Each structure stands twice: as structure tokens, then as C-alpha cells.
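Researcher: I need the complex structure. Ligand is zinc ion. Inputs:
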Amino acid sequence: MAKKIYERLEAISYSRPSGSVEERKALEYLAQEIRRIGFEPELETFSYTRRVPVKATLAAVLEDGKEVSFQVTGVIDSLETTPEGETAEFAYLPSYDEVSLENLKGKFVLLHGRLSKEEYRRLRRAGIRGYAITSGTVRDTYENSDLETTRFRDNLSDLGPLPAYTIRLIDAVELLRVRPKKVRYTLQLQEETVQSRNLIVTVPGTAASDELIVAGAHYDSVPFSMGSWDNGAGAVQMVSLLEYLKAHPVRRAVKVILFGSEETGLRGSRAYVEAHPEVIEKTRAMINVDVGGSILGKELLFIGAVSDTEVWIRQFLKEVGYAAVTVQKLMSSDSANFNDYGVPSISIGQGAPQGGGYMHTRYDNMDLIDENVLEREAGFLAALTERLANATVFPIPRVIPEALRKEAIDYFGEKSHLATQPPIPEEKPLPFHF
Ligand SMILES: [Zn+2]
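Model: Output:
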């Protein structure tokens, strides 16, 4: 059994970016495995558009007018410059304190880390004209690292994009060392339509119940990465779940979904929740798996539900003897789209110790994957799904608590569905009397 799950993961451990032939090929393999178990998967195609960089340059302009160019990638869905490019004064911004944010008007800034909405709001208020965010580590070389292409995130969209770039951290060091007065930069974008697919398997329930559970995982990867850890592991665990459910029928129906194009903005799950209001209506909870199978690291459970559910899950972990830490939080994965459509979620993941995890890099491959960890995780997924699907009364209230609601609205920005819906209040127990 452990061997089988490992072999399945090995079989799809190659780069499977959104819309690629490889993404398609991996799904065909998984579909074939699912047919072998005895289920007939449905395939649903969806498409989305994005503006991808076709030209991105960044050069330091020195005192004497000489220029030093650096390799950069443009940020998808950010903002074009004029074709001939723009020149701006340069500033380094390792933090967002008041002193650093002073006197940035019209400047191009160098930043670290993922921009939060509040950070971006302050940068916009300070009047910056463009920015570059670093990627990688100072130990990288050009040969052993890849420069990623990131995306202008939905949660920043209402503040408006700016010309934005990703630069290797080793190049950022060089950029700072040449002490540029100004930088010259160009960015040209082109709209493209991407086609991708979800795979859906409906496992019928044994009871006459309208309620159902969705269990899902994304099967795409970012470019360069083999996506074994993120998230081939989750995809093959879903196949194991189907094997389990075939042998152990449950009361409520379970829809197992493999989502495409998660890495480019949770596209598959968004397409699914938008296209199936009748399914969403009946869905009592969504169980998501994103990241797993490494011999290193701890199991994480992100609870996208009321606090009582976190208490319930912690009891369940003790009962089944599964070591995991829980947090009540919106997970930046496919479960977030279900939360945004009012469905509570439990998102299962794995956190690596410092230096032991290489998410979204070429080092996310089979090297650290362990068959026993994969099997243990799949076992927990099956136990949790079975427990929920067989419950007499569903233990998770179909409510998105206020804090999670705020997180979802902030996360999806203009695209948030929850923002358009009235909140559902939590039901209090009736007062006790003899
Ligand atoms: Zn992932």
C-alpha cells in the first residue's frame, strides 16, 4: 500500500505548471489510476486569462551614467511601462517603518518578502513608481537556482498594480553594492488564455442524505519544481482516499476533486465553486490537502471553521493518535475558495523545519519523500473523511466565523464572493431547563 502511493507520486513528479501539457499528462495518469479502482472520473475544463511578461529589464544607472543590468522577471498581472521604459530614483526598503517610508515619492524600491495588503497600501500612499521583490537565498548560484515568475495578488488588486519584478537575492546584493542613483526599467505584458482541468469523482453515500463532503487537492506545480511535496503528495492521497472509500462505504456522498492551476491563483477551485452552486449548497465541509509526504516536518491542520471545530479536531487527533498542530486560519489554497462560498474547511498540510523545505523550487522533488509518511497522512485523511461522512449529525456548523470571513474578504479583494453575502450568525444552544 505504502509502496503504491509512493509509486503514484513518483509517476507524476515532474514540473506540471498551469495549462501545460505536463499538467494534462499528470491528470490523465491519475484518472487512469482512479478508473482502475472502479470509479469513473468526470473532467471539467476551465480557462482564465492573465497578462504575462514578454519583456522585463532592470538596470542600475551609476553616477557616471553607466548602466549595470540585472536578470529579472516581470510580475504577472502587474503594470506595463512605456515600451522605451522608465527611469526613477532608487531606494532600498528592508522594512516599512516610518523613516523608511519617508521621501519615496516617484522612486523605484527594492523589497523583501511577500507584500501584505497593509504594506502595499503604505507604499502606494508614499507614491512609489515601481518595485522589485527578492527571491532565493544569498547562497544561490545561477546554476543551482531558478528565478521564479510571481503574480500580482488579488488582495492587492483594488489598490492598483505598478510595474513589478522579481530579482534573485544574490543580484539584489550586487544592485545595492553598485550604489545606483537611479534605475531604468521596462516591462511589457501580453494577455494569454490558459486552459486547465479539474477531475471530479462522486462517491455515492449509503444513506438518503442530501449532504455531502468535498475532499480535494491540487495536482499542478509551479514551473521548475517537480511538485512532489507541493502538491503531488495531496493528489495521490486523494487517490488513496478513493481506494479506501471503495472498500468502506460511508453514509454521506463524498466528492473527491483534483484541482488544476492552484498555483496561479486557486483557479481550479474557483472555477468549480462558481460553476456548481447546487453542489456548494449541499456541501457541509471541504477537506483539502496541500503539501505532504516529506520525511522532515510537522503535520498542520488549518481550521476554516468555528472554534468549536478546532476543539473537536483536537479531540479527534487524540482519539486516533495522530500528531498534528492546529490553527484556526484561512489557508492560501483551494479550501479558501470554499470558505469564500460559505463552506467550512479543514486544510491539511505539512510544515518543514528551517532549511528542510524547498517549496516552489527545483528542490521540491522526490529526495525527501517518504512512503511511510505518505501512507500515514493518507490514513488520517481517510479516517477524518470517514468520521465526518458517517456522523449522525454533521459536527461542523455551516458557518464562516467573523474572523475567517474578514480574512477571506481581505484575501480575495475585489473577487470575494463572501463580501457580497450577509454573514450567517452562529447558532447558540437553547437555554437549559428541567
Ligand atoms: Zn500547494
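Model: Summary of the prediction. Residues 218, 230-231, 262, 290-291, 333 surround zinc ion (CB under 6 Å).
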